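Bug #77: duplicate submission created two jobs. Keeping one. Sequence:
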Amino acid sequence: MEYLSVHIDSAAVMTSETALSKHKIFSTLAQQAAKSYGLDAQLVQDRLNARESLGSTGFGGSVAIPHARIKQLDHSVGLFIRLPEPVAFDAHDGEDIDLVFGLLSPEQGSADHLKALAEISRFLRNESVVSKLRGASSDDALYALLTGQQDQQAA
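Kept job's structure:
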């Protein structure tokens, strides 16, 4: 199984019972970014909203990849939320979303940002991966599926 190379802190991976709207999803991502990466939550939420105003980051298959550029970062970082119930997200295919991978990248480094988005998109288009993410029993299991930690610990 493939894993993502984007850095993801284990505290930035969660199942959220409270993110029941696009606004609350962005708020939750922002709080995760503050907790995991020391970023200003309001700045992250504002940047995610600004990017979303350009067009939905719901790309189909009940998955969204909201993303933003943050000046304080020197490398891309990830955030992941699994929702217990699908949420309206204005996705291009009209489907509600239940998996959200947030990507935050440095303001400079457009090529790296685009590579990270492409990698995440490919990863989340894999039906086997998505099925395992939806069926994971805990946040730790989600983290392991995203990063390969279980394989590394078994080695």
